[in-house]
């Protein structure tokens, strides 16, 4: 592929990470080589920043991080928050007032870029959130939540009620928050209109890069918009049908170094000449 792409957005789970949640030496190498050649490499994930820091603690990565499915952009793994898309106060107040009394909902979690709040700190929250983040939640107290830039609302319905609760949430908060129904037990809500693609465009404007000069790689529902709107969208072979339908190219599976293999192909010319291109500045 001869096009001279200047930025690549890389999803983590199911893409850069193996099924065992590791980064292979070949993946580490391609990300490092691309940065050294002048390509802006961006992590684009649904994970919170503290989880990304843990995963990349042994990887010399210097690029920006799109976290929380596009709601937060950090300058780097340890750098400052550049951009946040917070859910407005009206929606938060409504959610706390109504959802806390809804008997079909087992738990609520409100996410901010550097903290999270739960109504019940139970075993599921500990294993699903606290353990892998190495960070315990705060109690879901209205005054404290209002002071935080809450970007995501996660709702844990009773399993038989998942469809009905999704419909209820969409009707109640749909003007402010888009709730996603996935195979996960939790329903996830983001500020309406916010996706990894909106964050991609924020970074593109910041760096003076056209969307046509961007490669995006992902595997799931939360990658669809960036796959469609990037100059080259690449879905993993292990990905969902939604992601594959939105992509231009299908990469080998994540457990077969698919990300590294496809990026080596896309950037073959740049990597061959890369020693003289220098690193991305700014």
Shape: globular
Oligomer: single chain
Tally of separate helices: 12
User: For the largest beta sheet, what order do the strands appear in spatially?
Assistant: 5-4-3-2-1-12-13-14
Q: Distance between termini?
A: 27 Å
Mean of the pLDDT scores? 92
Secondary structure: elements and pairs:
Blueprint: E1 7-10, H1 12-16, H2 25-37, E2 40-44, H3 49-55, E3 65-67, E4 72-74, E5 81-84, H4 89-99, E6 105-112, E7 115-118, H5 123-133, E8 138-139, H6 142-147, E9 152-157, H7 162-173, E10 177-180, E11 187-191, H8 196-207, E12 214-218, H9 224-229, E13 232-236, H10 241-246, E14 249-251, H11 258-266, H12 268-273
Parallel strand pairs: 1-2, 1-12, 2-3, 7-8, 12-13, 13-14
Antiparallel strand pairs: 3-4, 4-5, 6-7, 6-9, 9-11, 10-11
Tell me about this structure.
Helix content is 37%, strand content 22%. The protein has helices at residues 12-16, 25-37, 49-55, 89-99, 123-133, 142-147, 162-173, 196-207, 224-229, 241-246, 258-266, 268-273; strands at residues 7-10, 40-44, 65-67, 72-74, 81-84, 105-112, 115-118, 138-139, 152-157, 177-180, 187-191, 214-218, 232-236, 249-251. β6 and β7 (115-118) form a beta hairpin. The longest helix has 13 residues, at 25-37.
State the gist of this model.
The chain is of the alpha/beta class.
Provide keyphrases for this structure.
8-stranded mixed β-sheet, 6-stranded mixed β-sheet, alpha/beta, 37% helix, 282 residues, 14 strands
């Amino acid at each position: 592929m001869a096009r001279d792409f200047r930025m690549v957005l890389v999803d983590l789970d199911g893409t850069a990470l193996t099924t065992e949640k590791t980064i292979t030496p070949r993946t580490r190498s391609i990300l490092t080589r691309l940065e050294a050649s002048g390509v802006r490499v961006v992590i684009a994930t649904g994970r919170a920043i503290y989880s990304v820091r843990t995963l990349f603690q042994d990887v010399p990565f210097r690029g920006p991080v799109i976290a929380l499915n596009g709601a937060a952009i950090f300058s780097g793994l340890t750098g400052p928050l550049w951009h946040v898309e917070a859910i407005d106060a009206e929606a938060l107040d409504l959610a706390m007032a109504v959802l806390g009394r809804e008997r079909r909902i087992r738990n609520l979690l409100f996410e901010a870029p550097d903290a999270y709040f739960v109504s019940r700190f139970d075993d599921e929250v500990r294993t699903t959130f606290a353990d892998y983040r190495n960070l315990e939640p705060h109690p879901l107290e209205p005054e404290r939540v209002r002071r935080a830039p809450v970007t995501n609302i996660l709702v844990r319905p009773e399993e038989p009620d998942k469809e009905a609760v999704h419909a209820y949430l969409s009707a109640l908060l749909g003007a402010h928050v888009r709730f996603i129904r996935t195979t996960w037990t939790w329903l996830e809500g983001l500020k309406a209109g916010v996706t990894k693609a909106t964050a991609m465009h924020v970074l593109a404007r910041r760096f003076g890069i056209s969307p046509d000069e961007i490669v995006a790689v992902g595997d799931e529902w939360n990658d669809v918009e960036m796959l469609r709107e990037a100059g080259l969208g690449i879905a993993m072979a292990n990905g969902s049908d939604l992601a594959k339908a939105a992509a231009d190219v299908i990469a080998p599976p994540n457990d077969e170094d698919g990300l590294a293999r496809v990026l080596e192909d896309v950037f073959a010319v740049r990597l061959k000449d890369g020693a003289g291109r220098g690193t991305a500045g700014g």
